[in-house]
Specification:
With about 375 residues, the chain is α/β, with parallel strands linked by helices. It is about 25% helix and about 25% strand. It has two domains: about 10-50 and about 150-220 and about 320-380, FAD/NAD(P)-binding domain; about 90-145 and about 225-315, D-Amino Acid Oxidase, subunit A, domain 2 (D-Amino Acid Oxidase, Chain A, domain 2, 2-Layer Sandwich), CATH 3.30.9.10. The two termini are about 40 Å apart.
């Protein structure tokens, strides 16, 4: 496999972060080589539920989500790929008074940042998300311009766009080392050979700590298994359901569901899963899912499961991304630890990494997401609107 002798930037990881970064850099005239150890989108991206939103509690995440939604909406024109974007909204069902107060504050913050957001009663919410049971629901948070799209299509679209602008995109190639001289990057070694470069961008997701360790950087990213299921096609007894309804989340249990083709995609974050890279599916997952659905969306119990899969969440201590440039090694960048909201922030992150490399001011100050923040625990600002 022939590699270029030299490129300006090597991007490690072929998920949404890596593909978006390669596209934005190549579009700006930077020579790029992206290396993915398996297939494009084969890591966490292809296992994502596909949700895209700006419904967050932290202003940084709201801004990243809103910017990405704007880029998703124009994806068919740039880079030019169909991603099946649907925008029926995001709906968080709240059953605890403290959560209602928290989301009321989030709603006001989102509105102040230009995101359409409002609180609904349980009755109002069940009208737009008919599978939702109102029992025990105190209020709901609704952002009507959020939605979902196809993760694999986003990655393939960005990769194709990167190639169109001259980037080298290689799959089945593992990065094995980073050569340094005097604190500067000189080359990257891979399973396909050596390539000279002066910059590396670490977008390896759950595997990013391994890449960071090559330059002496410790990243507090932990992998956890998450699982989801897609039901059989809806029968005539579900004819009352609209063609689209919001991605709906029972906040206290993390049970979520949305339309997916002719069926329903659903899942939840199982906190009993230990950390690690084990992807073997839980034989009790359907049983656990059913126990949650029985209370919050009982009609889901009338549907059989047709397919499903498990994937990895890359989680940080404060459920926020780790994003920035490692100052101890010249031109080593990282974007990882997105804690379940990485796919939806991928377009904006690609823009930011492009600007950081070009030494331009990104559209938003991302200093608070630096890896250095973990040495100052009092500076952490945990994201609360998580699934």
């Amino acid at each position: 496999m022939q590699l270029p002798e030299r490129v300006d930037v090597v991007v490690v990881g072929g998920g949404v972060m890596g593909a978006s970064t390669a596209f934005h850099l190549a579009e700006a005239g930077v020579s790029v080589a992206l290396f993915e150890a398996e297939e494009l989108a084969s890591g966490s991206t292809s296992k994502a539920a596909g949700g895209v939103r700006a419904n967050f509690s932290d202003e940084l995440n709201i801004a990243l989500g809103a910017r990405s939604l704007d880029l998703f909406s124009k994806f068919l024109e740039r880079p030019g790929y169909e991603i099946d974007l649907r925008r029926p909204g995001y709906l968080f069902a709240l059953t605890k008074s403290e959560d209602v107060s928290r989301f009321e504050q989030s709603t006001e913050l989102q509105k102040s940042l230009g995101v359409e957001s409002r609180m609904l009663s349980a009755k109002e919410a069940s009208k737009i998300s008919p599978l939702l049971s109102e029992e025990g629901v105190l209020a709901c948070s609704f952002t009507p311009n959020d939605g979902h799209c196809t993760p694999e299509a986003v990655v393939l679209g960005y990769a194709a766009g990167a190639r169109k602008h001259g980037a080298t995109v290689k799959t089945g190639v593992r990065v094995t080392g980073i050569e340094l001289k005097g604190g500067e990057i000189e080359a990257v070694t891979t399973s396909a050979g050596r390539i000279k470069t002066g910059a590396v961008i670490n977008c390896a997701g759950a595997w990013s700590p391994e890449v960071a360790a090559m330059v002496g950087l410790e990243l507090p990213v932990t992998a956890y298994r998450r699982e989801l299921a897609i039901t059989e096609p809806l029968g005539r007894e579900f004819d009352d359901l609209p063609e689209e309804f919001p991605m709906t989340i029972d906040y206290s249990t993390s049970l979520y569901w949305h339309r997916e083709g002719k069926g329903i995609l659903m899942g939840f974050s199982d906190s009993s899963n230990p950390p690690g890279f084990e992807l073997k599916r839980d034989p009790r997952f359907a049983e656990k899912l059913g126990a949650l659905a029985e209370k919050r969306a009982p009609r889901l119990l009338d549907l059989g499961i047709q397919s499903g899969w498990s994937g990895l969440y890359e989680v940080t201590p404060d459920h926020n991304a780790i994003l920035g440039e490692y100052k101890s090694v010249s031109r080593f960048f990282y974007a990882t630890g997105f804690s379940g909201h990485g796919f939806l922030q991928g377009p904006a992150i690609g823009e930011i990494l492009r600007d950081l490399y070009l030494e331009k001011e990104p559209f938003i100050d991302i200093t608070a997401l630096s890896a250095e923040r973990f040495s100052r625990p009092d500076s952490l600002r945990p994201e609360l609107n998580i699934v």
